Amino acid sequence: MVKVERKLEEIMVESPDGIGASDDEWAAFRRIEVIDFPLTFDFRHSLGKLSRFFLELENQRLMGTCCPVCHSIWLPPRTLCPDHHAVNDWVELGGQGVLEAFSISSYALGADSADESVVLAYVKLHGAKTALLQQLRNVPRDKQIEPGMPVKVVWSKIDVQHPMQLFWFEPDI
Ligand SMILES: [Zn+2]
């Protein structure tokens, strides 16, 4: 017999109303096949004018932009200062900052186990006017996550799929 590779199982389901098969007008349609149906999408897209931010991550450099008029430093980088509409310059920031806000997801899509929680954090690096959204990792179990917590950038030692996976934040203790 020809095999259907993505077929997982065949099951007989009962009427959701609890009607016995002899009175169930849908009885002939209660045999159900369950199959695996993977969906994969690939998109090719440009990171645009702000690509230098992503490219410099490969060199372990965090680049913001600086307004030539008010000297505000934007991270995430902006091409234009929103106050002066001046074209900004690139500027490198240090790897330390402060946690501004956070959200803990107790279960992450694609995680190997349910206890791999993910902490998303808004971090304002020293000198920057705005906060950057990135993962906060390796928080000691006895450490309370709270706004104001000093954090530092940690760089990946392994190859990654996306430039934003090249770094994350950890408590600076
Ligand atoms: Zn400005």
How many β-strand stretches? 10
> Whole-number average pLDDT?
93
Which overall shape is indicated by the principal axes computed on the Cα atoms?
elongated
Strand order of the largest sheet: 8-7-6-9-10
End-to-end distance: 63 Å
Order of helices and strands: EEHEEEEEEEE
Rg is 25 Å
Bound molecules: zinc ion
Strand content: 25-35%
- Assign a percent range to the helix content: under 10%
Regions with little confidence, pLDDT below 50 for 5+ residues: none
Assembly type of the chains comes to: single chain
Question: Structural class per helix/strand content?
Answer: mainly beta
What's the story with the biggest beta sheet? 5 strands, antiparallel
How would you describe this structure to a colleague?
The protein has 173 residues and is mainly β. The protein folds into two domains: 1-40, no CATH class; 48-171, no CATH class. 4% of the residues lie in helices and 33% in strands. It has one helix and ten strands. It has one helix at residues 51-57; strands at 7-12, 31-35, 62-66, 73-74, 89-93, 96-105, 118-125, 132-136, 150-155, 167-171. The strands form three sheets. A five-stranded antiparallel beta sheet has the order 8-7-6-9-10, with no helix packed on it. It has a three-stranded antiparallel beta sheet with strand order 4-3-5. The N and C termini lie far apart (63 Å). The model has no long low-confidence stretch (mean pLDDT 93). Bound molecules: zinc ion (ZN). Zinc ion binds at residues 67, 69-70, 72, 81, 83-84, 86. Zinc ion binds next to loops.
